Amino acid sequence: MDLTQELNEFLLRNGACEVGFADITNFTTKEGLDTGIVFYITYPKKIIKNMQNAPTLDYLNEYNNINSKLDELSIKCEEFIIKKGHNAYAQTRERLGTDFGDNNSFELPHKTIATRAGLGWIGKSALFITKNHGCALRLSSVLTDAPLEIGEPILESKCGKCTDCMYACLGGAISGIEWNCNLKRNDFYDDKKCEKYALKVSKENLGTAYTICGKCIYACRFTQKYIKNHSLTACEKLFDK
Fold this sequence. Notes:
two-stranded antiparallel ribbon; single chain; four-stranded antiparallel beta sheet; alpha+beta; 241 residues; 12% strand
């Protein structure tokens, strides 16, 4: 078994729902670590199904729960690669810090690596989307110099004319412009409007102001396909045990 397959199976076995590998030579944040490993964990369908009036307390709790699982998995991935004799750097929340900069974004977002790995694309909501799970997921990534087989990048949106997320966003953050890899996020999405509305609606729904909302996640047509599919994914089966 080669290293790519071995690592993929290791991450899936430890909770990842899907794994990708990307060439990040042109935008790595760590010199010499030119390959990105990216993976995600999905939100349980039952939580997303109840988000007509998002955000909900269940969504907030699962948001934090998945983030913790992803950090743990990132460290496991890093340790796995180092034991194989290569260098690795897990992009955990602690290491990246809480300062997102002026545009509420990390220097090398997980979703940038995910599009280059070919797992999905960026929606009009600026969220990462896959055909099978919509945007009902959260990502993490690890940078490495290990020789891995990389995926075929996805450089354009697959949302087409759909504007469901735009109309669901009561903060007016989504312009309706389709993403491509040459656009900066704020060319098609206003993070400040999103943040302002999220603070307002979370205060109303949860009693405390958080920078979470979830209305665009629920509205996405690919998310709706995911939650209406009654069969459990491998990831769901793992966490149901």
